[in-house]
Amino acid sequence: MASNAPLPVSAIDPYSPEYLADPYSFHEALREAGPAVWLSTYDVVLMARYAEVRAALEDPATFCSSRGVGLSDFAKEEPWRPPSIILEADPPLHTRSRAVLSDALSKVSIASLAPAFEARAEQLVGDLLERGSIDGIKDLAEAFPLSVFPDAVGVVEEGRENLLPYGDMAFNAFGPRNALFEKSFENAQMVAEWIATQCERQHLSDDGIGAAIYAHADRGDVSPAEAGLLVRSLLTAGLDTTIFSIGATLFCLAHHPDQWEKLKTEPRLARSAFTEVLRFLSPAQNFYRTTTCLYRGDGFEIPADTKVLLCLGAANRDPRHWDAPDHFDISRRATGHVGFGYGIHACVGQQIARLEGEAVIKALASRVATIELAGEPVRRINNTLYGYDSIPLRLT
Ligand code: 4MI
């Protein structure tokens, strides 16, 4: 194909009810359509192949984030909230924000959280084992992060019920203004106000990750207002994502008894199991970039000022890159997946996410003999996140 040939066009709508119900059934068609595809419904380009998605993530000068990483182009539409100074920013602003967040989330502070996280996971799994019949989502995938992450950041107890509705809003807002968006924004003002208030220094504990961010304001690395926005980033990105990934873990383990057995005999596979879950059922399915100039890919071109949907979930199952991509295998080398993104914007909280995921997996592997489905899992539908609302399980 000549590099300036028009891109193939697809009528697939990645926000239609059919697509959101089962995105994986559409990914192959999107990958096969070409390395980059025009989506006629939204007038954006979509990339679903691993090589192209990864090349875009590795070229933030061409594929910028400051015009928003959702469907909406901040150059044309006003964002629903003041933009994130890390997610929705380019260098040099991004570089400065990233340095502050990665320091606040550094190895030292993560290592100090590990004992409490592991103890909590053991305790929770022990309690659930006594009950036997549980909802894997409410009782474990939600209960665990909610019982460790807000404390680690240093958020007040009162009003924490706003955290999940805020995440739902934020991740729906990366998509179109559809019914899902409208529904999650029903109490938007109250929820967003509570979040903004909790990001202020005086509402945070003085020994949490939030306080570590504000310490950088004292050193002049960021302004106090920017420190507040970085705390907001943690509260936006830090719960739904881990909840969905622990939910995906339970879904995968319950559906693949052979892999569960393998994990039982080799608990050291906890880490690679969590990595494989993020490849196999990527909670963050879609993020956009915007082209700052004409992009010449391998055999195709994307014009400047174009919104480009990077389909992370599809890239993570691209047979051009992965052997037997639809096969869930906890001992495969799944590192290199783009479930945490890649390059300068790769998830800055991934160590804490892994700590949570692995703590749950290790607690399950050491205490639980069998994990069985006790009913039909129910999907939770969101414009960006793929996951479950309920997974009835029986633990023995
Ligand atoms: C990829 S998940 C995510 C990351 C960062 C933010 C929100 C969601 C933010 O607000 O900075």
Commentary on this structure:
The chain is an alpha+beta fold and 396 residues long. It has one domain (9-395): Orthogonal Bundle (Cytochrome p450). The protein has 16 helices and 13 strands. The chain has helices at 17-21, 24-33, 50-57, 93-104, 107-131, 136-153, 163-172, 179-184, 188-198, 209-218, 224-237, 240-255, 257-265, 270-280, 312-315, 350-367; strands at residues 9-10, 37-39, 44-47, 63-64, 133-135, 286-291, 295-296, 301-302, 307-311, 371-373, 378-381, 386-390, 392-395. The chain has a six-stranded mixed β-sheet with strand order 1-2-3-9-6-4, sandwiched between helices. Strands 5-13-10 form a three-stranded antiparallel β-sheet. Strand 11 (378-381) and strand 12 (386-390) form a beta hairpin. Helix 12 packs parallel to helix 16. The longest helix has 25 residues, at 107-131. Bound molecules: 4-methylsulfanylbenzoic acid. The site of 4-methylsulfanylbenzoic acid (4MI) has 9 residues, from helix 11.
List its traits.
16 helices; binds 4-methylsulfanylbenzoic acid; alpha+beta; Cytochrome p450; six-stranded mixed β-sheet; 396 residues
